Amino acid sequence: MFQFWGSRTYSGAEGMENPGYCSGSFDGLHHPSDDDDDEMVDIAGATLDFSSTDDVPPLSSGGFEDYSTTTGSSSSSSRAAGMNGTGPSNLVDPLEDPLPGVGTYEDFNTIDWVREKSKDRDRHREITNKSRQSTVALLHSISDAFSGWLLMLLVGLMAGALAGGIDIAAHWLNDMKGGVCLIGFWFNHEHCCWTSNETTFQERDRCPQWQSWAELITGTSEGAFAYVVNYLMYIFWALLFAFLAVTLVRAFAPYACGSGIPEIKTILSGFIIRGYLGKWTLIIKTITLVLAVSSGLSLGKEGPLVHVACCCANILCHLFTKYRKNEAKRREVLSAAAAVGVSVAFGAPIGGVLFSLEEVSYYFPLKTLWRSFFAALVAAFTLRSINPFGNSRLVLFYVEFHAPWHLVELAPFILLGIFGGLWGALFIKANIAWCRKRKSTILGHYPVIEVLVVAALTAIIAYPNSYTRMSGAELISELFNDCSLLDSSQLCGYKQPTNTSETGAGNSLADRPAGEGLYTALWQLALALVFKMMITVITFGMKVPSGLFIPSMAVGAIAGRLLGVGMEQLAYYHHDWFIFKGWCSPGADCITPGLYAMVGAAACLGGVTRMTVSLVVIMFELTGGLEYIVPLMAATMTSKWVADAFGREGIYEAHIRLNGYPFLEAKEEFEYSSLAVDVMRPRRADPALAVLTQEGMTVGEVETLVESTHYSGFPVVVSQESQRLVGFVLRRDLLISIDNARKRQEGVVSASQVVFTEHAPTQPDDAPPPLRLRGIMDLSPFTVTDHTPMDITVDIFRKLGLRQCLVTHNGRLLGIITKKDILKHMAQIANRDPESILFN
């Protein structure tokens, strides 16, 4: 059905211009004209200045040693050289020296997975062979094998330390909106009151050492004027933190905005976004993440921590040659770093590994699984050593529920799953519509004003309600809480039992009738639910670091707590109903509202992200509630099924599509009966495909062809008449080789013949010397026949990480299919704008 010319893919890529203001938007990209609609890759305005000062320098900047082989090498090495598109080194004329830049990638290009893996196999084979010859080489081999584990150790330590610092700083700045500690302004509210002997059980947060802004300014904490002062100071600090966050992002690191997970997924699939994982992005994202969370905006720090961990990994990769010079190996490290990010965000190392495997990774070999586990373990240990929560626990929301759940409760758990699925589908549609409006209207031109307006709106509405005033993590912790007899929380405002027989067994409390305090709390929670659902839609996607885990969990936890209290009161007043008979007797602790909050949080997060296995593991690691895995599984699966009924995309896939990233979703099935000839370029009405011939073209003609097109690579054919495919050569490598030949080889002029054959043809004596470029040609590009079904072609692209393959008929070149062509074809079939792909 289809054929391969060797076992590799070409090095071309879908190039794009520099991005707009934020990584979440490519508004500033070049839109191709009609005549380059059939392009393999558009890299208009590509520069030949390879002395890059970007955060992530081009690979193999030291030269070309990984690509050149000697003519006396073994047959296997010669085959590998052919795989790498180099051939024997004595044919690389004009130069025998390393050629800087050849084999590297432009910004906004996709890597060649097969070539990168082939390079690594060749490198490993060479090290293994040398290790048998000397002790020094053996030690080098051992250090090379150990370098991956050492890198994982460093990534875990660095990410864990940064996450601990972010947690501590965010807690301190969040409390600063309410007041200041007199014994040291650097203490947060909880630490300030630790040493005080004047706190009471009912007012454990009140101590003389901590004063609100009203007490400092007016001398009193009571009365309307004090309330107004505190209100205004809360708004002032919220606006200041939001302004600092958006200004720092805009001025120093535009890539630091947003969640980062859609871009991480795209990068892990092979796309290159230089600077996205660089040192400036890391520094600014770390600082502005603290400021954004502290401003009170409806966002979390968990998603951005994945970006922070990946930045750490990318920077540390430059310490090791094996990872610095190989993009595929670097992506294995980034997959492990994504696991580290979730591990430090939630204190869930196993959940982090599963998250990386299920949600973000494109290529995840078994070796990466082990290293991810090790790195997540080190990161969790580092975070535990720092102890940012001050409770000597690794988990964020530790719970101790005493009552077991009953089979009848699966019905409300599934109801929460339905709510989570509906909320997830609604949120994705609303958020994408808002982000599209932001990109297409004047709103997107004023990111600072937008952030300030949303921050002011959030602060003004949030302050009067204690449940929206507190941070998202504190709110979830409060909702997960199981009421004890002396608990002073409003959510525990039950009427006290009149006799000791109603206090329940052991440490648990019997179900009690709701008191006035609980009714007040329920009204506040209902208002908080509506507010959170609406404000999160417009907050996610703004030009500040913004995660979605905590806001989604907060929505679900509120809904779950409301349902849990309703079930509890139903069981108390109607324990004789048939659904409660036999397991819920008077005076028993039947219903645990905190458990419903936990299940609701998982359901809403699952509905938004479509995570399943990793989410359940994260939730029970997060809370320590091992015995509640079945309710969590039921709610998570229900939410995914319900949300999938409205659209199979999660929020991250939706943002990938919105921004036009070249990402082939592995979960999406290609269900159409088209053939390769239907998708390939050129189409019938298009100009013929631009090709090079293996001999007969001059340097001037090649330069003219390159300058008159924006293609990133050119097929090489025997002749224009036969169109028999010989190989493929990259625009970048072609330009570098010609430029170097003109500078360093005498006699190369515009009239010099460009030759891709093994032996140069006979020329007149007075002719200038030919330029032989067989060494930079890919001799084995992937090909499919014109009648190959597109579902097979799409599978090949996904599983081998191709950017393109050539289409032939009986060995004769017909056209080319790029990843962009496939994405455009899929968009067209789905009635979406095909021009949004790559050029949004």
Automatic annotation (TrEMBL):
Residue span of region Disordered: 49-96
One MF term in the entry's GO annotations: voltage-gated chloride channel activity
Gene3D superfamilies: 3.10.580.20, 3.90.1280.20, Clc chloride channel
Keywords tagged on the record: CBS domain, Chloride, Endosome, Ion transport, Membrane, Transmembrane, Transmembrane helix, Transport
SMART domains: CBS (SM00116)
Topology class, membrane: Multi-pass membrane protein
Record-level GO cellular component terms: early endosome; endosome membrane; Golgi apparatus; plasma membrane; synaptic vesicle
Biased composition (Low complexity): 68-78
Domain of life where this protein originates: Eukaryota
Family as reported in the entry's similarity comment: Belongs to the chloride channel (TC 2.A.49) family.
Protein name according to UniProt: Chloride channel protein
Organism: Amphiprion ocellaris
Organism placement in taxonomy: Eukaryota, Metazoa, Chordata, Craniata, Vertebrata
